[in-house]
């Protein structure tokens, strides 16, 4: 595959690994790099990136899986809507995520109408085909996904549809990075920044974070050479006592990002506090529909009260999402919690840290 | 999950909002609401059916050139 295979060259990977070892030899103590992107989590596990790093370089996964940080209360609300006759349209990842006591998959098998989609445009198609029935799209995602999902609003308006709404749980990466960095116990020294989130918000979006916390931030793509060269850039900064934003994915990410997409998003959505499963409420870390579009907000339309309980008892997803523990350190991992019978969201999502470990590292 | 394969735009609607894009002979519908000025022949990154950014081939080649230099330098160092 052009522009994919070249970024998987094993000789270059080995050379970058040696450079990482050389730079690390000059660093004292342990260095922790956190990635906050589910696709990075999977790529790092799939390509065994950690096996190329010296032991003193700790690569941890953060809350980069939007499905994993969606509160159980949101899943419960979606299940409730499905069981009350609404048609739920969602990305496939959400189907098996455990709520407090059930899942959308279980609701579907008991007769509820839950449709999975590749593109949010499907919500419009379904609403057109089912004029008397309410269609609710589960609007979950980070900055990459927010634009495509927000497009449901103008499309619905253009077709004069009054039977489609969004149950929003949009989340933003930079505020989560701030919350994680403010917790000194987590000991995060630097961030490998997401690829496609950064395509939207731009590498410059991390500059306020770097000014405040003085931790290196490097934007990287998903291929092994992207990740390894990104790690090398982080370590080179640390070795020089520097902290700045560097863009290692310039074939897709611009410094200023995709301003057209950002303007589009801000036409329909505004900042709001958001509850992150396992982490709690992070101020201004979410986006909600603006007042003039609140008629399409499912929470308002159906007078929902969504519980903000952080986690089911016994579940350690919160500690995994913060990088406090690795999945094998959770007593439930691969025992009571497996992909076919997940206890928490990190095991069930295709971007979940526990799912990555189960599939590639266990 | 994000897919980072650059897809080539093969058609664009008159209002530039929709079209098709192709990779490896497989053509799919694509929405161009989130990018400016989509053109046939441009390479884009598609997410959930939407082009989220254009692919910069020049930047890709520059990065590959750097990687080749790293690889060549490492080969020289080895006995």
Account of the 3D structure:
- The complex is a heterodimer of chains A (362) and B (79).
- With 362 residues, chain A is of the alpha/beta class.
- Chain A has a domain at 72-171 and 257-301: HypD, alpha/beta domain 2 (Rossmann fold).
- Chain A contains 16 helices and 11 strands.
- In chain A, the strands form 2 sheets. In chain A, strands 4-3-5-6-11-10 form a 6-stranded mixed sheet, with helices on both faces. Chain A has a 5-stranded parallel sheet with strand order 2-1-7-8-9.
- Chain A is globular.
- Chain B starts with 6 loop residues before the first strand and ends with a helix.
- Chain B has one helix at residues 57-77; strands at residues 7-12, 18-23, 26-31, 43-47, 50-54.
- Chain B is built from 1 helix and 5 strands, in the order E-E-E-E-E-H.
- The interface between A and B is large, with 49 and 33 residues.
* Quaternary structure state of the chains depicted: heterodimer
Structural class category of chain B: alpha+beta
Provide the gyration radius of chain B in Å.
Answer: 17 Å
Radius of gyration of chain A: 21 Å
Largest sheet: number of strands, sense, barrel closure of chain A: 6 strands, mixed
How many individual helices of chain B? Answer: 1
Number of helices of chain A: 16
- Taking all residues together, what is the mean pLDDT of chain B? 93
Going across the major beta sheet of chain B, what is the strand order?
3-2-1-4-5
Q: Give the CATH class of the domain at 72-171 and 257-301 in chain A.
A: Alpha Beta
Q: What are the secondary-structure elements of chain B, in order, as H or E?
A: EEEEEH
Please state the overall shape of chain B, judged from the principal axes of the Cα atoms: elongated
| CATH secondary-structure class of chain B | Mainly Beta
Protein structure class of chain A: alpha/beta
């Amino acid at each position: 595959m052009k522009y994919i295979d070249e970024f998987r060259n094993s000789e270059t990977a080995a050379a970058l690994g040696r450079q990482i070892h050389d730079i690390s030899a000059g660093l004292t103590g342990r260095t922790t790099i956190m990635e906050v992107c589910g696709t990075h989590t999977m790529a790092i596990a799939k390509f065994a990136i950690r096996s190329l790093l010296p032991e003193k370089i700790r690569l941890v996964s953060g809350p980069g899986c939007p499905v994993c940080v969606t509160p159980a209360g949101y899943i419960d609300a979606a299940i409730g809507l499905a069981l009350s006759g609404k048609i739920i349209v969602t990305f496939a990842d959400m189907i098996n995520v455990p709520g407090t006591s059930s899942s959308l998959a279980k609701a579907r098998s008991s007769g509820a109408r839950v449709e999975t989609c590749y593109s949010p445009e499907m919500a419009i198609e379904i609403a057109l085909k089912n004029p008397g029935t309410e269609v609710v799209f589960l609007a979950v995602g980070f900055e990459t996904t927010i634009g495509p999902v927000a497009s449901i609003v103008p499309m619905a308006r253009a077709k004069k549809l009054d039977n489609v709404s969004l149950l929003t749980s949009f989340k933003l990466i930079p505020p989560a990075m701030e919350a994680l960095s403010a917790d000194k116990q987590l000991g995060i020294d630097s961030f490998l920044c997401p690829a496609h989130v950064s395509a939207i918000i731009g590498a410059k979006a991390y500059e306020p974070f770097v000014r405040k916390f003085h931790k290196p931030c490097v934007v990287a793509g998903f291929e092994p050479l992207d990740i390894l060269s990104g790690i090398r850039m982080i370590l080179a900064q640390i070795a020089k006592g520097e902290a700045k934003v560097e863009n290692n994915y310039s074939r897709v990410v611009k410094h200023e990002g995709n301003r057209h997409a950002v303007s589009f998003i801000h036409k329909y959505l505004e900042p709001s506090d958001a509850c992150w499963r396992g982490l709690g409420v992070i101020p201004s870390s979410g986006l909600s529909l603006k007042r003039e579009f609140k008629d399409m907000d499912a929470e308002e339309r159906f007078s929902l009260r969504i519980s903000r309980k952080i986690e089911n008892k016994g579940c350690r997803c919160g500690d995994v999402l913060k990088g406090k523990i690795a999945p094998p350190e959770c007593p439930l991992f691969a025992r009571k919690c497996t992909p076919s019978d997940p206890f928490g969201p990190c095991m069930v999502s295709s971007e979940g840290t526990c799912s990555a470990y189960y599939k590639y590292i266990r | 999950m994000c897919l980072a394969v650059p897809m080539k735009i093969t058609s664009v609607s008159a209002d530039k909002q929709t079209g098709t894009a192709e990779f490896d002979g497989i053509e799919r519908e694509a929405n161009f609401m989130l990018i400016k000025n989509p053109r046939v022949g441009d390479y884009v990154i598609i997410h959930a059916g939407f082009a989220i950014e254009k692919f910069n081939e020049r930047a890709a080649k520059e990065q590959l050139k750097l990687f080749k230099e790293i690889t060549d330098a490492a080969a020289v160092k080895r006995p």
